[in-house]
Design a protein that fits this description.
This protein is mainly β. The chain has 3 helices and 18 strands. It has a single domain, classed as Beta Barrel (Porin).
């Protein structure tokens, strides 16, 4: 039984660490401002873990990516000479850093509640936003705060080889959805060049928040296949019932929003649904030293149309799409501490055609990251 519990502890710890900082802001220009469940934590204390209620877990998660590889549909767009946007030098480059501060309270062996305070810092350079010149805009601060309640379907004490945790989360619009910065743009493109600094909203992909209340349905599951080998799966879907947040697109492009009665308007950025799916295998490399390795797949993105039908008619601007990655990871759990690192590597990406892309006969592109770095440190009290 001790070895079985050790397997459970490491498996749960690895999933918790990966879930704690899955704020998916997704792979660059496809803007996802959500997060995954971070409540698989009842075994994070190793042999001294207390499966009863009353314990606390504090965590700090970090994530970094650089997105600069453009996709339109599932392919990288090229000009008439066969050059990619990188080769032309006009690619968009996003540098994004995320820090998630989390605290979880174990109500009982089966039930827990977690609060996550996300902080973000972004820098973006996009020549098309500055009349062809590569200048930077940036944003940062508090993101959208999340509160998640999780419950194991079965009592963990009686199901050491496998279990499923389901969760319900609430996202509050605490992050700025209309952050602004200085753009350098031609104010008289027809009569001559007149580049002037103007203050406008930064791009949707680097806004700290999305501007709407939302709720998430999530699950985490694991199952011991044979001793030291555990299969895992995690799913997350964020519902954003509101349509638009009213913040105009950063360059005030008239093609960014809907066309009503023959007029192009910009009625703000769309508050999109978001999703994440992870699954894979965890291998307990050392039970004595509480070290585990993992390898799995990851898919995350923004849908073309939300489940409630938002994204058509007079809806705002969005870049729908998804990224698929292979995700290696390592986890070390000395005593009450837990340390983990994962590095998802892009396998494929698809910037899907939005509703308004289709209406206007075009297909926009978006920048994705070739890889991500995520790290998490947590401790049980």
């Amino acid at each position: 039984m001790k070895n079985q519990k050790q397997l459970l502890y490491i498996s749960a710890a690895l999933l918790a660490a990966a879930g704690a900082n899955t704020q998916i802001q997704a792979q660059g220009c496809v803007a996802v401002h959500g997060g995954g469940m971070c409540t698989i934590n009842h075994g994070l204390g190793g042999e001294s873990a207390d499966l009863e209620g009353g314990s606390w877990l504090g965590s700090v998660g970090y994530r970094f990516f650089k997105s600069d590889r453009h996709f339109s549909g599932g392919r990288e767009p090229r000009n008439a000479l066969g050059l990619s946007r990188f080769e032309q030098g006009n690619e968009v480059i996003n540098y994004s850093n995320f820090i998630d501060l989390g605290v979880t309270y174990q109500l009982s062996a089966r039930y827990s509640v977690a609060l996550t305070l996300p902080f973000v810092q972004h820098t973006r350079s996009a020549p098309y936003e500055h009349s062809g010149v590569r200048n930077e805009t940036s944003s940062g601060g508090l993101g959208d705060v999340r509160l998640t309640v999780g419950a194991w379907i079965w009592d963990p004490a009686t199901q050491p080889k496998g279990n499923i945790q389901v969760g319900l989360g609430l996202k509050a619009p605490t992050g700025d959805s209309a952050a602004s910065d200085t753009f350098y743009q031609d104010q008289d493109p027809t009569a001559g060049v007149n580049i002037q600094p103007v203050i406008r909203n930064v791009d949707q992909s680097i806004q700290p928040g999305d501007g709407g209340w939302g709720y998430s349905l999530e699950f985490n599951a694991y199952r011991e296949i044979v001793p030291r080998w555990i299969a895992y799966a995690q799913g997350f879907y964020l519902f954003n019932p509101q349509n638009v947040n009213g913040a105009p697109s950063p360059t005030a492009r008239r093609d960014a929003g809907p066309n009503i009665a023959g007029l192009d308007i910009d009625n703000g950025m769309s508050i999109t649904d978001q999703y994440l799916l992870r699954c894979g295998i965890t291998f307990v490399l050392s039970q004595k030293h509480q070290i585990a390795l993992s390898l799995g797949g990851r898919m995350e993105g923004v849908p073309v149309e939300d489940l409630n039908g938002n994204a058509g008619n007079s809806e705002g601007f969005r870049r729908p799409g998804y990224a698929i990655a292979v995700e290696p990871g390592i986890n070390w759990m000395p005593g009450r501490w837990n340390f983990s690192i994962t590095a998802p590597i892009l396998v494929s990406a698809n910037r899907e055609r939005s509703y308004w892309d289709g209406r206007k006969g075009r297909h926009g592109d978006a920048a994705f990251a070739d890889y991500l770095i995520t790290a998490n440190i947590s401790r049980r009290f």
